[in-house]
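Below is how a single chain appears once it has passed through the pipeline. First comes the sequence as given, then the structure the pipeline wrote out for it. We keep one example in the README because the format questions we get most often are answered faster by looking than by reading.
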Amino acid sequence: MTLTRLTVQTHGPVCHDITREVAAVISGLGDGVVTLFLRHTSCSLLIQENADPDVQRDLLGWLERIAPSADHPSMGWITHRAEGPDDMPAHLKAAVLPTCLQIPVERGRMVLGTWQGIYLVEHRRAPHRREVVVKFQAG
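Resulting structure:
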């Protein structure tokens, strides 16, 4: 079993492709499964298309539509505002996207589809230092 922590510096809402970093951790480790766990409650992990950047832009646009800033008139019901108007909407977005992923590994390579990449999806506007725990389990 291998346990590694990846650090991702974010700068506002964006999909950070972390596929290469994860691939480097498991390279040459054989067959098994890699588990990714995000140690935060206002960002998410996601496997999504990596060929067309419009996919990530549209995803972020959709997330903004379902949970706009707490300053938006439709969000007047939000009471948690201590960390700014984007904080509670970030928690809502993280509630609909995963914070943990498991991916099969064969001969030290993730068994991802041709157009799949792994993303850390930042939901906050301010810069943050995010940590992803990567655990490889041989199987």
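The two ends are 10 Å apart (CA to CA).

See the next section for the split statistics.
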